Amino acid sequence: MRRTARLLPAVLLLTLVGCVPSDPPVTPPPTSADPVFASDEEALAAAEEAYRAYISAVDDILASGGVDSGQLDGLVSPEVLAVQEEGFQQFRDLGWRATGSTILRNFTLQQFDGESMLVLYVCSDVSDVDVVDAEGVSQVSADRPTTTTFESSLAYDGRRFTVETDDPWEGSGVC
């Protein structure tokens, strides 16, 4: 026992001063010299298409009273789906449905890492969207803001972008 106690500090000392042999350095696998997208504009266009598909699906789900959130499968992260599902549940519980469509404009690239993550700002205009109850009575407040800026992050998996976050943004200059 006493011998082990004496050896441990020596082994630790050798490790700290670098006298213990180590494995050869690991060489990372080669990466493709070709970028995923030819330009930031091309990446933004692909992300815009994915975001439009997401909002179109949300509009469809709300028009049906919050039913069939499966339309979002493959379009959003589990976290975004969970947030949206809360709203869909409220629509189902209250017997509401939406009419009209969200208008998306002013897609602005905030950041793109060149490979898999892109962050954008988007202007969401709901001026043509109404929310009605089972009797067809509007539930929209007269002072509802019609335009909201969202900051959204999208992940690229080699085939398509999916919406990972979608949060209202309080900054100015986008819409």
Could you please describe the fold and organization of this structure?
This is Nuclear transport factor 2 family protein. Keywords: Signal. By secondary structure, the chain is of the alpha+beta class. It has one domain: Roll (Nuclear Transport Factor 2, Chain: A). It contains 3 helices and 6 strands. The strands form 2 sheets. The protein has a 4-stranded antiparallel β-sheet with strand order 2-3-5-6. It has a two-stranded antiparallel ribbon with strand order 1-4.
Quick summary:
The protein is α+β, with helices and mostly antiparallel strands and 175 residues long. The chain has one domain: Nuclear Transport Factor 2, Chain: A, CATH 3.10.450.240.
Layout of SSEs?
Blueprint: H1 2-17, H2 40-63, H3 78-94, E1 97-99, E2 103-112, E3 117-125, E4 130-132, E5 147-156, E6 161-168
Write down the Rg: 25 Å
- Looking at the overall shape, the CATH architecture is Roll
Give the neighbour order of strands across the main sheet: 2-3-5-6
Averaging pLDDT over every residue, what do you get? 84
Helix proportion = 25-40%
CATH class reads: Alpha Beta
User: Roughly how many Å apart are the termini?
Assistant: 73 Å
- Number of distinct helices: 3
Structural class, by secondary structure, is alpha+beta
Shape: globular
Give the amount of beta strand, in percent. Answer: 15-25%
Tally of separate domains: 1
Look up the CATH topology. Answer: Nuclear Transport Factor 2, Chain: A
Q: How would you spell out the order of helices and strands?
A: HHHEEEEEE
Number of strands: 6
The major β-sheet equals:
4 strands, antiparallel
List segments where confidence is low: pLDDT < 50 over at least 5 consecutive residues.
Answer: 1-30
